[in-house]
Write a structure and sequence with these properties.
This protein has 640 residues and is α+β, with helices and mostly antiparallel strands. The longest helix is centred in the first third of the chain and has 19 residues, at 6-24. The protein is elongated, with a radius of gyration of 34 Å.
Length: 640
């Protein structure tokens, strides 16, 4: 049988609880039992062996076979009962006080009726627990501590369930009586941490460790700091939770940071609120009261100011700001991310992290970046870790310390090219059943918008957010919409959705008009279809279309881009998209062009209502068919 050393835990528990009570509420401390204060002991004398034997005999009478669970037996041999077990149980029974629960509220029936057709073993066991459990709680705040002789582990321990009658929640299960008591010891600190004046030697030591960990965190010693914050957080130290929440936000991409919603606090207004709003909108929150703060007169001005931030983030016009040199880097990075160079934006940000300045002693990271519509997507969890392991806020490592190795994505990476468009994105909601794009050399995205747009540039959006635009599911009503950006000297307009209807005879050839004074490329793909065109100075130089079994070409097409070379199978493009990949790779190689994968898959880019790709009339140039056979293409669409 396992031997449990209860004495050290219970003595420490008693000393710490009494010290904290004396500091927090001296008047209430004076009302405590004299013997408890004098002896510095929350327990009682050890159980008499005869009473322990009597308890085991009662268990047999109640139909419970087997010995007492080891941790409960050894506990009773040290203290026959316990006072103040956690925050809601004021007295735990000794050997004489342990009794049958009896299920006075028919919870077994309630839980049994709620079992579905295929319940788990744990669900069945919990439903039956109410009828066989033993009650350990003698005085509490509507809290039952139930020992289940039907839930026995390999070590002979019985599970303990804690049920708060006022909570409306399922009971909490603990593997053993020892596990329950250890959790109740921690609960005292978790609940006390929110009380002003709750203090003892343990809290003072923990707070000192938290401060040391805060400095270590700013030196980039992330995991070491997290371990300290976790330990202190388990014992209810509020500052540990505040600091660790900021780190978890960057490591997990979301989170809640416990700061009072006062807009005069720059950390709340500039860091906490943008993150809170982003998470609120991300989960399609409709009730904005959560992010605006308390609905009372005292908070009215704060709510109005918070509403401005909310509306800016909702409209994707919000811009995260930070003090000092890091703030200047944020502005530079945003301009790069605005047009799709998210890798460049990240390089600017990570290079500036050592010069980041906190708003105060409780601020350890620029987690508000996540709320910026353009920069938020750039900060992946991996990049968040990189940011947090970079020394900052004046805590750069000494010159003798080993330099931090550059992150693999903090250096200039090879261009993405175009072939990545054929790769299935792991995000289930990002499904491209078709895409089309234009690339124009040597002009800015703003000029591309002037040439190609039917209206001004709209707010930035991710691909899955386009469905939320006006007439998002009626594209024939609103016309085509592209996301616009620039990379490596070429500006692009990229459009994707399900089955934009292609018609070679009515194709408007947008690249031809866009190429005035420069060059422009056009690509359109859908299952069974690949169209490519190259135009220069307002004239189409060459183009081809492979549409199932039909092939059309015009102009002097370079050998490397010839449709028969890229799509050798006469029945059309390969179903596995390997032909499409090869064609895109050859186009990228021939012209040195690339589309930013991260920006198109995960980021946001300005939106642009564009001129139609398909005309209501036949406008196509004189294609010369090399093969023409009947075949079915994508289903028709009225979208232009």
């Amino acid at each position: 049988m396992k031997i449990f050393e209860w004495g050290p835990l219970l003595k420490r528990w008693s000393e710490e609880w009494l010290e904290a009570q004396a500091a927090e509420d001296p008047e209430e401390f004076e009302e405590l039992d004299e013997d408890m204060v004098r002896d510095r002991w929350l327990g009682f004398a050890p159980v008499d062996p005869g009473r322990l034997t009597a308890l085991e005999e009662r268990l047999q009478e109640w139909g419970t076979a087997g010995p007492l669970p080891p941790s409960l037996r050894s506990f009773l041999q040290v203290s026959d009962g316990w006072r103040h077990a956690g925050g809601f149980v004021y007295l735990l029974a000794g050997a004489d006080g342990i009794s049958r629960y009896g299920d006075p509220h028919d919870l077994a029936g309630l839980y049994g009726r709620n079992l579905d057709a295929d319940p788990t073993e744990a669900e069945v066991r919990q439903a039956g627990m109410w009828g066989r459990a033993l009650q350990l709680s003698l005085d509490s705040d509507m809290t039952d501590v139930l020992l289940d002789p039907g839930d026995v582990g390999a070590d002979g321990e019985w599970a303990v369930y804690v049920y708060h009658g006022w909570s409306g929640e399922r009971p909490t299960r603990y593997e053993s009586f020892r596990a329950f008591m250890e959790a109740m010891y921690q609960e005292i600190y978790r609940l006390g941490g929110g009380h002003e004046g709750f203090e003892n030697g343990v809290t003072r030591a923990l707070d000192a460790k938290v401060e040391e960990a805060r400095i270590a965190c700013l030196r980039g010693e992330l995991d070491e700091a997290l371990a300290v914050f976790r330990e202190a957080g388990d014992l209810g130290r509020p500052r540990a939770e505040l600091l660790s929440a900021q780190l978890r936000a960057l490591l997990e991409g979301s989170g809640w940071v416990p700061v009072d919603p006062r807009m005069d606090d720059p950390m709340y207004a500039g860091e906490v609120l943008p993150l809170k709003v982003r998470d609120h909108l991300r989960h399609y929150g409709r009730d904005d009261s959560f992010v605006l703060g308390p609905a009372s007169d005292d908070w009215a001005a704060d709510r109005e100011r918070a509403k401005v931030v909310l509306e800016r983030i909702r409209a994707r016009t919000y811009e995260y700001a930070a003090p000092g040199p890091f703030g200047h880097a944020v502005k530079e990075a945003r301009e790069l991310a605005r047009w799709g160079d998210t890798d460049g934006a990240w390089r600017v940000l990570v290079a500036a992290v050592p010069r980041w300045e906190p708003y105060g002693a409780d601020h350890v990271a620029p987690f508000g970046l996540l709320g910026d519509p353009l920069l938020g997507p750039v900060i992946t969890p991996e990049r968040g870790r990189r940011l947090l392991t970079t020394p900052r806020a004046g805590q750069a490592k000494t010159a003798s310390a080993p330099a931090l190795a550059p992150a693999h994505d903090a250096v200039v990476a090879a261009p993405d090219g175009l072939g990545w468009l054929t790769q299935r994105n792991p995000r289930a909601e990002l499904r491209r059943d078709a895409y089309r794009f234009v690339l124009v050399e040597g002009i800015s995205p703003e000029e591309l918008a002037e040439r190609f747009g039917t209206g001004p540039l709209g707010p930035p959006a991710g691909e899955t957010e386009l469905g939320g635009f006006p007439f998002g599911w009626q594209r024939e009503e609103r016309g085509p919409t592209a996301r616009v950006g620039a990379l490596n000297g070429w500006s692009f307009g990229f459009d994707s959705n399900r089955w934009p209807g292609f018609d070679a005879a009515r194709l408007t050839h947008p690249g031809t008009e866009l190429s005035r004074g420069t060059r422009a490329l056009t690509v359109w793909w859908a299952p069974g279809l690949f169209h490519f065109a190259c135009a220069e100075d307002g004239e189409q130089r060459y183009a081809f279309t492979v549409h199932e079994t039909e092939r059309h070409r015009t102009g002097a097409i370079p050998a490397a881009l010839a449709p028969d070379h890229l799509f050798p199978d006469p029945v059309g493009p390969a179903v596995d998209r390997s032909d499409e990949t090869g064609a895109l790779d050859e186009i990228a190689k021939a012209f040195g062009v690339s589309l930013p994968r991260f920006a198109l898959d995960h980021g946001r880019l300005p939106t642009l209502p564009t001129r139609p790709w398909i005309s209501s009339q036949v406008t196509a140039p004189d294609y010369r068919p090399t093969e023409r056979r009947t075949g079915s293409g994508p289903p028709p669409s009225r979208r232009s």
